[in-house]
Amino acid sequence: AMEKSYVFMLLLLIVISCALAKDAGKKDSKDATAKPKLPQTLSRGWGDQLIWTQTYEEALFRSKHSQKPLMIIHHLEDCPHSQALKKVFAEHKDIQKLAEKFILLNLVYETTDKNLAPDGQYVPRVLFIDPSLTVRADITGRYSNRLYAYEPSDISLLYSNMQKALKLLKTEL
């Protein structure tokens, strides 16, 4: 009889620990939604290992408090130009490395902040904002009709503009 109750206790323990583990699993996923552990979907393919902010407001706050410049990429999922730029951006090792020094945000919608569309609401466009929350209108691409647009062939210009956004930071702040 002793042996039987021992087996029963063991089974009971197993059942309880499984139930607890399941509960713990549930709790973790609830925490993840409450306190965002930043799902990879925020990258939207622009760099899955990079940390992307969720909203413009959050990005501004983080830039100001970390003293890192903010890089904002406006794009659309169904725009071939956006897709093409995203591909070269995500595959460019140096850009991905340098991007770690920025607060990052990619947006598939427009914000109400007119400063983010200095010359129109086209995509893709990339703007830099310094930690004093000033849009860097001086850091532009090569097209005079769309100052903040970059084509895949402009990827090295985008890279040097990222360096410029970081360099001017050191001298000005």
UniProtKB/TrEMBL annotation:
Keywords: Endoplasmic reticulum, Secreted, Signal. It is found in: Endoplasmic reticulum; Secreted. CDD domains: AGR (cd02960). GO terms for molecular function: dystroglycan binding. Its main location: endoplasmic reticulum. Residues 1-21 form the signal peptide. GO terms for cellular component: endoplasmic reticulum; extracellular region. Coiled coil: none annotated. InterPro entries: AGR/TXD (IPR051099), Thioredoxin-like_sf (IPR036249). The keyword Flavoprotein does not apply. Pfam families: Thioredoxin_7. Belongs to the AGR family. This is AGR2 protein. It comes from Chloropsis cyanopogon. The gene is Agr2.
